[in-house]
Amino acid sequence: MPTNQTPNYKLNQWEKSDKVQMEDFNADNAKIDAAIKAEADARTSAVAALAATVAQCGNCKIWTTTYTGDGTYGRNNPKTFTLPSKPVVVMVFALDYTSCMLLPYGCQRGTTVGQAVDHTCELTWTSNSVSLASIQGAHHQMNAENNSYMLAVLIASDA
Fold first, then answer.
1. Whether the Cβ atoms of residue 60 and residue 157 lie closer than 8 Å to each other
2. Which of 16, 56, 91, 145 has its CA 20 to 30 A from that of 34?
3. CA distance 130 to 65
């Protein structure tokens, strides 16, 4: 029989004068096995809970492209972007840092935010496209001639 035990799991610790018995080792192995199993079960449960939480977070894919404006604008010349699938949010950035737009899916008007004045565009959505139309000019329609733009689109992960 051992004289001492470890403080956390009460595993046997022997002195030189103690008689070592197989039952003591078997009891220690059973305690170690139970502790490892409890830890593994706790981790499995935590991973499952985390996976369930992440699944509810609305994760999304990001799709980007660039284009060069052609200078056209107005209701008869909308700038149309065809997307890989239904977007959650569309962002358009002028690469010269002069303007940008943030367009949540379904909104009817988008505002060009620029260095001087903000202007509104009319938006038309389909399941996988958005069209911008501004009567105020190509710059406000994110289509100024020879300007470079970037489109960044958040797409629902289940789309």
1. yes
2. 16
3. 14
Locate 19 and state its tokens: 């008689």
Q: Which residues, 6+ apart, have CB-to-CB distance to 143 below 8 Å?
A: 69, 70, 71, 72, 73, 79, 132, 149
pLDDT, tens only, 99-157: 888 888 888 877 777 655 567 788 899 988 999 999 888 888 899 999 999 999 988 77
HSE of 87, CA atoms in CB hemisphere, 13 A: 27
* pTM score of the predicted model: 0.60
Q: With helix as H, strand as E and coil as C, how does the chain read?
A: CCCEECCCCCCEECCCCCCCCHHHHHHHHHHHHHHHHHHHHHHHHHHHHHHHHHHCCCCEEEEEEEEECCCCCCCCCCEEEECCCCEEEEEEEECCCCEEEEEECCCCEEEEEECCCCEEEEEEEECCEEEEECCCCCCCCCCCCCCEEEEEEEEECCC
What are the Cα distances from residue 143, in Å, to 43, 99, 103, 122, 136? Answer: 52, 11, 16, 14, 12
Main-chain phi, psi angles of 93, to 5 degrees: -125, 130
